[in-house]
Design brief:
- This protein is α+β, with helices and mostly antiparallel strands and 735 residues long.
- It is built from 20 helices and 28 strands.
- Helix content is 35%, strand content 26%.
- Strands 3-2-1-6-5-4 form a 6-stranded antiparallel β-sheet.
């Protein structure tokens, strides 16, 4: 019998595809399968292409190109279409590409192969659905790429096990998985899939000399394949009864090897028979290697997280006992350098006479050394504060301490340039009297604090400051003093909260201001709702509202708290974050007892402009604008800023002392009264002058007469206070 007769008997056709000439030769059976008359024929490529489903044609091109490149067979499944576009049948094509040099010296190829009809599973049957196109090699490579990517992204042992359980291997899928680890001379089950809880019991604490496949794999480092239950029973009769109850018929046990060391074993069990062909063994071996690497990385990462989390908990302070009349909330979110503890820190320090201190700081860098210096500096600051030093003295001593931590050349320190390299730290130290709300603040290169007033307005609080700690050992740090009024909240933070996400200081503060002001409205809504419903309980929401505000501030930068360490927002992190909130209880703060109809609290700010800091006049103007951000008349606001600038400048020019600015707005919106006072230490009273057209000064009193509703000068025991008042004029809607 001829070969053609044999192929025709099994419904298999022959075809030859000449890529150079663009023609396809078909025998009678191949022509029939393509929906043509059952006789040999030579057709142009386009005529044959029209018989294939368009999607299948696009995929067969890739398969053929891969076969040409690798010198292997091209195998694909193709849907044959009739002239009306309906699928007639599905065929399997197997061909061998042969290279051929043309007369002009170009390289082309010719495909010679077979085509055979295959039966597709009918609806409702349990036959396994296979792709229309694609061969074993292509499916295996795609599977291994997907498996490698998924295992590389797993960050914990649990995630690695979940990925391993979800792998769908090409052509054969295990329905039972187990990963064994080694602890000393014993085997343990790290995780399993496809078994009930408790099934791992007999295998949990097994010695390595046990007659069990996983134990032998760990001892020898060689894989064991058991295609049938008889193979299992013959090779491991002692433990066969333990495996028999799971109703599996094939098993593969593979070593998990990392850097030449066997760290465990991986079991894949099948309910359908598996022959473990060379290709299947190759896939299992590759997966086992990737699984071992993923488990190793996850174990190292978990150990680091456990170590750094313990270090973080030991180094982060407790906020201490409750303070009558005040509430404190704090957050620390480590984000830099891969560590769970970095150079940012905060602290609360009880002081003599019932006072306490709040400290927040940031050591340069995001490495282990930054974390170590942070711990040493925090202890030093706490020690200096506990000795009773004032804020400026505490920071001066801390600066000398940090400067002395770097070992000088020739001191016998380890020859490590980083260990000797200087580091600096920013710091903000606040001493607070809870009875009066008085705050004394010293700042070392740290961002200024912000104050959320009782009515929700948020102001930057400019404070005097000096160089960061550790740059110059003997540095003076001026002290700024102001009062935190009832209902106001002070926010201290590190630059990570401000600048993360590509923001600078200005845009970062604008973002935080919106969160702080929005948090006030949310707290007020929550408070009113609880009061109206009669569900308010004293002492339950007081802490909650301030804690919720701290969470809102962090979420504004990093997203929800569940994404602090992993998730889609993790790539937005650029620096560690520390934030401390101090609230003095009062109406409108969300921390005190709810008031049914509270009167609008006064809005007040105070600022000192020193003789040596004339640049702070611009800060005074900005402070007034922020205080009156919702003033009804923009022209009045411009007049206020002009008068403030003139008054403060006059103090610096005509006296030898500093200027103390106090601004206060009281009343309901649209009907407020603004009073601004600028005090100095000079006894000389201002007098009205008549400057000429070209004069550069002498117009201060004239401006107040023209722009203020009332003004005056109040002599004091030492110096004087110049003041003016302005009444808000609500704009009427246009007719």
């Amino acid at each position: 019998m001829r070969t053609e007769d044999v192929l025709a008997a099994v419904a298999t056709g022959l075809w030859r595809w000449d890529n150079a000439s663009g023609t396809v030769s078909l025998d009678g059976e191949a022509a029939r399968l393509l929906g043509l008359p059952a006789e040999p024929v030579v057709l142009p490529e386009v005529a044959v292409r029209s018989r294939f489903h368009p999607v299948d044609w696009n995929e067969i091109n890739g398969i053929v190109n891969l076969a040409v490149a690798e010198g292997t067979l091209a195998e694909a499944r193709l849907r044959i279409m009739d002239v009306d576009g309906r699928v007639m049948r599905t065929v399997r094509s197997r061909s061998k590409p042969l290279e051929r040099w043309s007369a002009d010296g170009s390289l082309d190829y010719e495909l010679i192969g077979t085509i055979q009809e295959i039966a597709e599973p009918q609806p409702g049957t349990t036959a396994v659905h296979t792709p229309i196109t694609g061969d074993w090699r292509r499916s295996r490579e795609a599977f291994l790429l997907d498996a490698g990517r998924a295992l590389a992204e797993a960050r914990s042992t649990a995630e690695v096990l979940r990925v391993a359980a979800s792998l769908s291997m090409p052509g054969f899928n295990p329905d039972g998985l187990a990963v064994f680890g080694v602890a000393g001379d014993r085997l343990s089950v790290i995780g399993h899939h496809g078994h009930d809880a408790g099934d791992e019991g007999p295998f949990t604490d097994m010695t390595l000399d046990t007659d069990y496949p996983a134990a032998e794999v760990v001892r020898t480092g060689r894989a064991i394949y058991l295609p049938t239950p008889d193979d299992y029973k013959r090779r491991f009769p002692a433990t066969w009864p333990l495996a028999q109850r799971f109703d599996r018929v094939s098993w593969a046990f593979l070593p998990l090897i990392v850097a030449g060391r066997t760290m465990g074993a991986w079991m894949a069990a099948f309910k359908q028979p598996a022959s473990f062909s060379p290709d299947e063994r190759s896939v299992l071996t590759t997966v086992a290697r990737m699984l071992a690497q993923a488990l190793q990385r996850a174990g190292v990462a978990e150990s680091e997280r456990e170590l750094t989390t313990g270090l973080q908990r030991s180094m982060m302070p407790q906020l201490g006992p409750e303070i009558p009349g005040m509430r404190i909330a704090a957050r620390y979110v480590p984000t830099g350098g891969g560590l769970q503890v970095g150079g940012d820190w905060y602290d609360m320090i009880p002081l003599p006479s019932g006072r306490f201190a709040l400290v927040i700081g940031d050591v340069q860098g995001h490495d282990v050394r930054a974390a170590g210096l942070m711990g040493q500096l925090r202890i030093a600051v706490r020690a200096y504060a506990s000795e009773g030093h004032r804020p400026d003295a505490v920071l001066s001593r801390a600066s000398r301490f940090l400067a002395g931590l770097c070992a000088p050349e020739g001191s016998g320190a380890e020859d490590d340039s980083d260990a000797r390299s200087p580091r600096f730290a920013t710091c903000l130290y606040v001493e607070c009297d809870p009875k009066t709300g008085t705050l004394e603040m010293a700042r070392a290169g740290h961002p200024d604090p912000a104050v959320r007033m009782a009515d929700g307005t948020v102001l930057m609080r400019p404070t005097a400051g000096g160089l960061p700690l550790g740059i110059v050992p003997d540095t003076d740090y001026p002290t700024t003093r102001f009062t935190l009024e009832p209902g106001e909240t002070l926010m201290l933070c590190t630059d990570g909260l401000i600048e993360t996400g590509g923001h600078d200081l200005d845009t970062g503060w604008a973002r935080l201001r919106a969160v702080l002001e929005g948090g006030t409205r949310e707290a007020g809504t929550h408070e009113a709702g609880a009061h109206d419903a009669g569900t308010h309980e004293a002492g339950t929401h007081e802490v909650g509202d301030l804690e919720a505000l701290a969470d809102l501030l962090v979420q504004a930068v990093h997203g929800p708290s569940s994404h602090h360490t992993t998730g889609p927002l993790a790539d937005r992190r650029e620096d560690d974050i520390a934030v401390v909130l101090l609230c003095r209880e009062g109406g409108g703060c969300g921390c005190g007892t709810p008031v049914a109809h509270p009167a609008r609290p006064a809005r007040r700010t105070m600022l000192t402009v020193a003789q040596a800091e004339p640049e702070r006049i611009a800060g005074a103007r900005r402070q007034v604008r922020e205080l009156l951000h919702d003033w009804a008349d923009e022209e009045q606001l411009d007049a206020v800023v002009l008068m403030v600038s003139e008054m403060v400048t006059n103090v610096l020019v005509h006296t030898d002392g500093d200027a103390l600015l106090v601004a206060e707005a009281v009343g309901e919106l649209g009907e407020r009264r603004l009073r601004v006072e600028v005090a100095d230490s000079s006894d000389e009273l201002p007098h009205k002058r008549h400057p000429g057209e070209m004069a550069s000064s002498g117009r201060g009193v004239l401006l107040m007469e023209m722009l203020a509703d009332a003004w005056g000068v109040d002599p004091r025991g030492e110096g004087k206070s110049i003041w003016f008042e302005l009444y808000e004029q609500s704009k009427q809607p246009d007719a």
